[in-house]
Amino acid sequence: QVQLEESGGGLVQAGGSLRLSCAASGRTYSGYYLGWFRQAPGKEREFIAAIRWTDGNTYYADYVKGRSTISRDRTKNTVYLQMSTLKPEDTAVYYCAADRGMNRLYYYKDDSYAYWGQGTQVTVSS
After folding, report:
1. In the 3-class helix/strand/coil scheme, how is 26-69 assigned residue by residue?
2. Partner residues linked to 33 by β-bridges
3. Strand partners of residue 4
4. Which residues make Cβ contacts (< 8 Å) with residue 105, sequence separation at least 6?
5. How many other CB atoms are there within 10 angstroms of residue 106's CB atom?
6. How far apart are the first and last CA of the chain?
7. C-beta separation of 6 from 122 below 8 A
């Protein structure tokens, strides 16, 4: 059973930074992709970044390149999303997701992921 729990959300001023954490249940995640998505009110869920657990390869949506970094800590079974230069339009619920059997070309699609956390709210004030 894969269990994911996000933390680190909160209220931050525009231009600030935040690091989100996703703690994964205690098992090996070899072969898994772990991704971060977000959903703003009234909008569809959108891809932010993903990391392949085995080798640490990372993938980013174009709109966050240069201001977000995804990383993992194998010893803590945790994935991080470091975000900087936050904007009010970054306000959303941020979700962590995981899957192993996906087609590697579709890491950016939310329906490629079978396991999801409950989400953590990020609010960026202007």
Report:
1. CCCCCCCEEEEEEECCCCCCEEEEEEECCCCCEEECHHHCCCEE
2. 52, 99
3. 24
4. none
5. 13
6. 40
7. no
Cβ-contact 123, 45 below 8 angstroms: no
Tokens of 64: 């966050």
Query: Any long-range contacts for 52-58 (C-beta under 8 Å, 24+ apart)?
Result: 52/104, 53/29, 54/30
For the stretch 9-68, pLDDT in tens is 999 999 999 999 999 986 778 889 999 999 999 999 999 999 999 999 999 999 998 999
Q: How many Å is the maximal CA-CA distance in the chain? A: 41
Assign 52 to helix, strand or coil: strand
Contact, 96 vs 6, CB < 8 A? yes
29 residue type, one letter: Y
Q: Length of the chain in residues, anyone?
A: 126
